[in-house]
Design goal:
- Among the domains are: 115-152 and 165-284, 3-Layer(aba) Sandwich (Rossmann fold); 368-502.
- Helices cover 36% and strands 24% of the residues.
- The protein is built from 18 helices and 21 strands.
- A hairpin with a 6-residue loop joins strand 1 and strand 2 (106-111).
Length: 504
């Protein structure tokens, strides 16, 4: 009997529990809300918003405002300075450093001990549980797990409080037994210099029986490329013949799918998408044949949604899970056992099913282009790029896009800066397919492109090798869970990249 066969038995009770997501979804969410309110009743935030009087969802929605990071920032800073019972009961000692806001370089997301256990680690556990359900012949525990992580530092100089990448916080607090089956070693995993870390990880994995890998697709690809350089092999299965699954999340996988298929040609290789963020762990791909993920409903996260056609209006409609409709684009709100309350996480989702509740990530509330009424979202961009790559044989590594506003001839267009791992032979054809596909899938974009009246044909500018990595490095965000903004209504990001491009 293999180690995987033995380990699989420990997942059986949870696999049975997961079936409740199919027929008890609303009950699971109502239970989570009651629990969160009860646990935070005596906190500063709970007292200010009359948690003791909240009996149901309507009471919760009436007493608690919708929040962005700006509204919670002051309380979070109190927590970082050691104050207890602010947004969540007790003292919170860990803070996940995330991409910043308009006013700040970084956000600091509280991670309570309870949230670490019942949200973040629970998501990792369930990823394995669901994978084993889909692949009963798996040998995943018969080898090592390659898990990428970021780095952390002392919070305000306090030795018992950490701030940094969520992945680093997870590695720092992981059960020591897990270190027996994972690579690299903890010291390497927590290195702050990604370029040094990349090389060390690659060297530490050589000769190991790696059966599964976990991490952000872009950073993992960089590590795997280094592994191939060191070994001189053509395909990754020549290095790790028993590799069977990549648990990926953090960024959309679509731009990287072709490159991974070239790197890993084994027909038995699986890819499982996860929706994990600094703020929590929210979704898992329960059917590897369906790109939609199942919303995880019993983790200590209560979900609400704002229709995107109302987002940003003075009094938008806010609905709980049982109020969503399939096929509609929503901004997601979360309330969690880490102390985030009706928090606008910044992601947009579209439900594909209500039994169970399954969804796809469509983009960001702020990462879109709507300079001319075209309402281009990341989901559109990913589909358009996939079509252009399929038509031309190209492979996209990184990209960002922004509007070009009216010139002296009143001409407007979108400008795409793309780093290709395999450039198209005909860049004009690539641009044409991308533009046509965006018109096909987005009626607003199509209307604005009509006869070039409002919006001209898009422009593609190839980026030099490693431009985006150099930009992230300049920002101090190379590695970890940091990512390039894909779409922007302003030209801030693309102009910074152009300046860096011209210096090299």
């Amino acid at each position: 009997m293999s180690l995987t066969s033995i380990a699989s038995m420990f997942f059986l009770p949870r696999q049975r529990e997961l079936k409740r997501h199919f027929n008890e979804a609303e009950e699971l969410q109502a239970r989570v809300l009651r629990y969160l309110v009860a646990q935070a009743m005596e906190t500063k935030y709970g007292k200010e918003h009359f948690f003791s009087k909240i009996k149901d969802y309507d009471g919760f929605a009436a007493n608690v405002p919708v929040n962005t990071y700006e509204e919670l920032k002051g309380d979070i800073d109190r927590m970082r300075h050691g104050e207890s019972d602010v947004l969540w009961k007790g003292r919170v000692r860990w803070f996940a450093k995330s991409s910043g806001t308009t006013n700040d370089k970084s956000k600091f997301i509280p991670v309570s001990a309870e949230g670490l256990r019942n949200i973040h680690y629970a998501g990792g556990r369930d990823a394995v549980a669901m994978y084993l359900m889909s692949n009963p012949r798996s040998r995943i525990f018969d080898g090592r797990s390659l898990i990428l992580g970021g780095s952390h530092a002392a919070n305000y100089g306090a030795a018992d409080s950490l701030v940094g990448d969520l992945s680093a916080i997870l590695i720092e607090n992981i059960n020591p037994l897990a270190n027996l089956v994972r690579v690299p070693c903890k010291e390497t995993a927590l290195l702050s210099d990604f370029e040094v870390k990349r090389d060390r990880i690659a060297r530490e994995t050589l000769g190991k029986n790696v059966t599964n890998i976990s991490g952000v697709p872009s950073w993992m690809l960089s590590v795997l490329t280094r592994v191939m350089e060191l070994t001189g092999k053509t395909h990754l299965e020549e290095v790790w013949p028993n590799l069977e699954v990549f648990f990926h999340g953090g960024v959309a996988f679509t731009p990287y799918r072709g490159q991974y298929r070239q790197l890993i040609t084994s027909p038995s290789m699986h890819y499982m998408e996860t929706y994990n963020a600094s703020e929590g762990f929210f979704g898992l791909q329960n059917d590897l044949g369906d790109p939609a993920m199942m919303l995880m409903l019993d983790y200590g996260v209560f979900y609400e949604f704002i229709p995107m056609d109302e987002f940003g209006s003075p009094n938008p409609t806010v609905v709980p899970l049982w109020g969503v409709e399939t096929g509609k684009n929503y901004a997601m709100l979360i309330s969690t056992s880490c102390g985030l309350w009706r928090y606008v996480i910044g992601d947009t989702v579209r439900f594909t099913s209500r039994n169970p509740y399954k969804f796809v990530i469509t983009g960001r509330t702020k990462h879109f282009i709507n300079a001319f009424g075209e309402e281009l979202i990341v989901d559109n961009a990913e589909k358009g790029l996939a079509a252009a790559c399929a038509a031309t044989g190209a492979e996209v590594l990184e990209y960002t896009a922004a509007p070009v506003f009216m010139n002296e001839n009143a001409k407007c267009r979108h400008q795409w800066l793309i780093e290709f791992s395999r450039p198209p032979e005909d860049l004009a054809k690539f641009a044409g397919v991308l533009d046509s596909e965006l018109q096909r899938i987005n009626s607003d974009y199509e209307a604005k492109r009509y006869k070039d009246i409002t919006l001209q044909h898009l422009e593609i500018i190839p980026a030099r090798k490693n431009l985006f990595n150099d930009w992230l490095k300049m920002k101090g965000k190379l590695g970890g869970q940091h990512k390039v903004p894909r779409l922007s209504n302003s030209r801030e990001y693309i102009e910074e990249l152009f300046k860096l491009r011209s210096k090299n």
